[in-house]
Amino acid sequence: MSAPGSLGGRTAVVTGALGLLGREHCAALADAGARVVAADIDGGACSALAAELLSRHGTEAMGLALDVTSERSVAEGRDAVLRRFGSIDVLVNNAAINDKFEHPAAAAEESRFEAYPLDLWKKMFDVNVTGMFLCSRGFGTVMAERGRGSIINIASTYGIVGPDQSLYRKPDGTQSFYKTAAYPATKGAVIAFTRFLAAYWGRKGVRVNALSPGGVENAQDAHFIAQYAARTPLGRMASPSDYRGAIVFLAGDDSAYMTGANLVVDGGWTAW
């Protein structure tokens, strides 16, 4: 397995760095010795995270204001990273959004497939799919020109199997929310795009893999956590730290002969 310092001398860009898993990805890469670029919309918060990574892990880090849906922002971000570190070796396409309804009381109706707003569908594809495309092209082209690199696209178990709508049912039998079509559709696209890019850039020395995490416990309602745990062979939801090893593995040389794959780390969720 990858040892501490195994990514020494490499520069890793993590999009969506301020999110629950994004912070963990940054910490895992820093622990492995990488220079980490924490990229997200809020540049000030990213700079604060970079300072924290330097303080806690002792490796160089950089905060980067980045809008993954903007071709210009991605190009400017790429140039800023190259000016600072001179190379880009790893890209973690982690930036993504999930459904948030303006009026929670209306969520049960709006999340139904029959009533799901078209603008929410388009917005999720813009961030989850187009954002991955733009970042892969912007940052990944640097890797292809140098002849080496690793791109890790964060997918989901819902890119593999359909959502279990019963998980979102309350103990009294009412349904306050449905998992919508947009999220699994975008995550399925992430896996398909991963295979495309792996085949396209394989001869350029750029490996492209997907990581499909299971659900992460994050202060959800107690009944949801219990229902998810009962549906999972390992009997629990994931903790944010459960994906650290997978990120470092895919980023480093231990996975040197692995590309176009989807690494599923889900506690057995998709096993039955």
Protein model, in words:
With 272 residues, this protein is α/β, with parallel strands linked by helices. The chain has one domain (11-100, 124-163, 181-220, 238-262): Rossmann fold (3-Layer(aba) Sandwich). The chain is built from eight helices and seven strands; from the N terminus they run βαβαβαβααβαβααβ. Strands 3-2-1-4-5-6-7 form a seven-stranded parallel beta sheet, with helices on both faces. It is globular. The mean pLDDT is 95.
Provide a concise account of the structure shown.
This protein has 272 residues and is an alpha/beta fold. It has one domain (11-100, 124-163, 181-220, 238-262): Rossmann fold (3-Layer(aba) Sandwich), CATH 3.40.50.720. The protein has helices at residues 20-31, 43-57, 71-85, 107-110, 118-146, 182-201, 222-230, 244-251, and strands spanning 11-15, 35-40, 61-65, 90-93, 149-154, 206-213, 262-265.
Overall shape:
globular
Q: Give the rounded overall mean pLDDT.
A: 95
Number of domains: 1
If you consult CATH, what is the topology? Rossmann fold
First-to-last CA distance: 28 Å
Superfamily (CATH H level) name: NAD(P)-binding Rossmann-like Domain
CATH architecture: 3-Layer(aba) Sandwich
CATH class: Alpha Beta
Structural class: alpha/beta
Order of helices and strands: EHEHEHEHHEHEHHE
Helix amount, in percent? Answer: 40-55%
Stretches with pLDDT under 50, minimum 5 residues? none
Strand order of the largest sheet: 3-2-1-4-5-6-7
